[in-house]
Structures are given as C-alpha cells and as structure tokens.
Write a structure and sequence with these properties.
Radius of gyration: 24 Å
Shape: elongated
Number of domains: 2
CATH architecture of the largest domain: 3-Layer(aba) Sandwich
Structural class: alpha/beta
CATH class of the largest domain: Alpha Beta
Bound molecules: flavin mononucleotide
Number of strands: 12
CATH topology of the largest domain: Glutaredoxin
Strand content: 15-25%
C-alpha cells in the first residue's frame, strides 16, 4: 500500500513531462574535401544518419597546383611526405564535447588520409566518443588510412571505416547499422559515486546488470533484491551497477554522497553506484543512449500491481510510449553478457528475483 501511494504521488509530479523525453542522437559528420567528392558523400551520410555536419576547412585552401600529385614539389606531395606536417584548419568547432559519435571523412591521398586529418584529430578531445572514418578515392581502399589512424591515435575508440565511392542509400544504411551493433559496453566510461572515471572495459568478462535507481520511489525496495542477487552471484562474475537518476517524479533529489549513504544504511547496498545522471532526453548519458539503442521497451509484467498505473500514466503522456526505447521509470534493468553486449532489458515491474534465471544463463561458463 505504501508502495502504491508513494508511486501515485510520483505520478502527479511526473505529469506530462514524459512526452518531452525523447531519445536524441548526438552524431556529427565532419569532413575535409579538396574538390567536392567527399563533401557530397558527407552530405549523403549526414542525411541518412540524421547528424550535424561540419566541414574541416584548411586555413589556406588547396589550389589545383597544390593538388598536383604528379609534381613531387606540390603542396600536397610535400605535406604527405612529411609525417609531421599539420596544415592549419580555419576556425574551430565549439561544441565538439556535445557529440558521442563523430564520422570523419577525407579524400584518400597517397593511399592514406591527408595530414589535415591529423590536425583535426589533435585539435579535440575524443575521449568517450566513437570515431568512424569514411573516405572517397580514385580507386584505393580505405584500409591503409584506417590502420594509420588507429596506430597514430590508439586511445581513440575507432570503428571500422568505409569507402563511400558512389554508395547507394541502402548500402549506407547497412553499414551504419553494422557500426552501431558493433559497439559494446566496453566503449563507454562514466563517473563513479565519488566522481572518479570508470572505464567499462575494466568489467570485460563480467556479467553486468545496469540499473537506474532512485531513493524515494515505489520500486526503491528493489535495492534489497538487487543486493541479494549481487551477494548470490558476485563470486561467479556478476556485477550490478546503479545509476541514480532524478528524472522520474523527482525521486532522487540527493547528492551522490547522500544517495550512497541512504543505500548503504537502508538497503545494505555494496554493489557499485555511479554519479547521478540523466537517462532520457538531450542530456542523456551516452551509456544510456547506447543501452536504449540495443534493447527497446520490454513491456510491464502484467501481474505486478503497479503495471496498470504505469501504463495509464505513460499512455496519457504519449500513446505510442511503448514503441520508443526511452527508460520508462526508475529500476529499469539491462543485462549485459560477458562480451559486453546487451542481452536483456527488464522493466521496473520485473522484480529482481525474476532475473535469477537470465543471470544464471549468462554466468554459465
Ligand atoms: C594529392 C592527391 C593524391 C591522391 N591519391 C590517391 C590515391 O593514392 N589513391 C586513390 O585512389 N585516389 C587518390 N586521389 C584521388 C582522390 O582520393 C579522389 O579524387 C577523391 O575522391 C577526392 O575527394 P575530394 O573531392 O573530396 O577532395 C588523390 C588525389 C589527390 C589530389
């Protein structure tokens, strides 16, 4: 009863704001193009991906003479011979920090990428971003360019690149889909409850359960069940990770310190808690954008007493709520296998005990 009244209070606070919490992709298509071919490919890519577009413009544009590859003394020949050359870029993108995925396009010069791409890569911090090369060429493949970029910038999270010489829209879509499904949770970082950076690649080989939590929610007692799961399976490789979030009924108002203390004192929580984040909307944490892209709404458990209420509330805000992958409420759980892939999503109405079997399946050697 207490659970339901807490929940009803939350519904009133939540109101219609759920309708504005649509998932937003933060993707940028950047490109350098000397004669317009890569520019056209970048524009096509931007449209298919639904991204912003940014041209990497040389401070000093390349003339036809500069591009004469037959002339060993032309500007492009000299730049490509000198691995340390870094042609200056005009202007700087101010909001690079807003993007999680950055496509970088260029024409292939001398079987690799022009050195202005090195200038670009060294002008921004790509930590936490996924970077995807694309190129156009006379006939060369993109393979060498990708290898060179990976070798020069090994700390960047590179995805397989693609040559976009005369590709169809369908081919582009297939490639983008394969790039997206290639990502794993190991590509992401987040801040711990103490504000320290946690790299999810440190959890390689573990089975993970990622949960968005709140301290004043009808589902908060699930902390007990989650801790029980953790105690039961942690020696076999389960790690539960809580992401406190205040986006549902303002049920997580405290500081990271207060949240940690609450969980420890009231629910004996010993599994890791992260810093408070947003899981929906334009400020959604990249890890949640990725989680939601991997597993959409799983449906509420019909027999749970709060399922009907949740359904009514969410339908009021958005009659098609079930078809978008946004997080619906606190205590949505994502199960990640030992390879870093999402293998299950469980809505708040799935009690932790219901997760035992799926967790055990993933823990099997
Ligand atoms: C200096 C220079 C070197 C080039 N080297 C190659 C190459 O090694 N292999 C290739 O297939 N095409 C090469 N090309 C052709 C370009 O990659 C191709 O025309 C590209 O689509 C041009 O793109 P853009 O119009 O965006 O500048 C070269 C072009 C120039 C100007």
């Amino acid at each position: 009863m207490k659970q339901i009244s807490l929940f009803l209070a939350a519904l009133m606070m939540f109101g219609l704001s759920a309708s504005s919490q649509k998932q937003e992709k933060k993707t940028l298509v950047t490109y350098f193009s000397a004669t317009g071919t890569t520019k056209a490919a970048a524009k096509q890519l931007k449209t298919v991906v639904g991204a912003d577009l940014y041209e990497i413009k040389p401070a000093k544009p390349y003339t036809d003479a500069d591009l004469d590859w037959r002339n060993k003394q032309s500007r492009s020949s000299l730049e490509m011979k000198d691995k340390s050359s870094r042609p200056t870029i005009a202007g700087k993108l101010k909001n690079m920090k807003d993007y999680d995925v950055v496509y970088v396009g260029f024409p292939i010069w001398w079987n690799t990428c022009p050195t202005i791409i090195n200038t670009f890569m060294e002008s921004y911090d790509f930590k936490g971003k996924t970077v995807i090369p694309f190129a156009t060429s006379g006939s060369s493949s993109i393979k060498q360019s990708c290898e060179d970029l990976k070798k020069t910038y090994p700390q960047v999270n590179w995805k397989e690149g693609k040559l976009l010489n005369r590709v169809s829209k369908k081919e582009l879509e297939t490639w983008i889909k394969s790039v997206n499904t290639m990502s794993t949770i190991y590509d992401y970082t987040a801040l711990s409850n103490k504000g320290e950076e946690v790299n999810f690649s440190d959890y390689r080989g573990k089975v993970l359960l990622i949960v968005n939590t709140a301290s004043k929610c009808g589902f908060t007692p699930q902390y007990d069940g989650l801790e029980a799961l953790y105690q039961k399976y942690k020696d076999q490789g389960l790690v539960i990770i809580g992401f406190p979030c205040d986006q549902f009924g303002h049920q997580e108002p405290g500081t990271n310190e207060e949240i940690e203390e609450f969980c420890r004192l009231n629910h004996g929580v010993t599994f890791p808690l992260m810093s408070k984040i947003e899981v929906n909307g334009k400020n959604a944490h990249p890890i949640y954008r990725w989680l939601e892209s991997q597993a959409g709404f799983a449906g509420f458990t019909p027999e749970h007493p709060l399922s009907k209420l949740l359904d009514e509330m969410l339908s009021k805000a958005d009659s098609a709520y079930a078809s978008n992958p946004d997080i619906k409420w606190n205590f949505t759980k994502f199960l990640i296998n030992r390879k870093g892939e999402v293998v299950g999503r469980f809505e708040p109405t799935a009690e932790p005990t219901a997760l035992e079997k799926p967790i055990e399946e993933q823990l099997l050697p």
